[in-house]
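Recall the central idea of this unit: under ordinary conditions, the amino acid sequence of a chain determines the structure it adopts. In this exercise we apply that idea directly, starting from the sequence alone.
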Amino acid sequence: MSMIEATCHCGASRATTTEIPEFLLDCNCSLCRRYKPLWAYYKSDQVSIESEAPLLVYAWGEKRISFHFCPNCHCLLHNSSEAKEGQKRIGINTRMTSPESVNTVRVRKFDGADSWEFVD
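Accordingly, the structure predicted from this sequence is:
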């Protein structure tokens, strides 16, 4: 069974799943264009989050998406939100994984800045 494990730089925080995503999301919203994550989205019960200390959380605007950072090295590990259907979901930042774990997964461009639609 394959596993995706995202770990921060210092190793104190991690997000893991056994599910390979259908695609990775490359967003251009005001936060993602600064952080440059590649998101792999899952239902919240498909992801395990572990951290030696409580993660730092940042939410902006309508606060529908929360960004979670390691409190030690400040790497962006994951985000959490509620999908339109009301299902809680977690986006793992695959930039925190080994490149080999996701290098065959298709990357889709998402316009989070304006249209809130895929643009590929």
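The mean pLDDT is 95.
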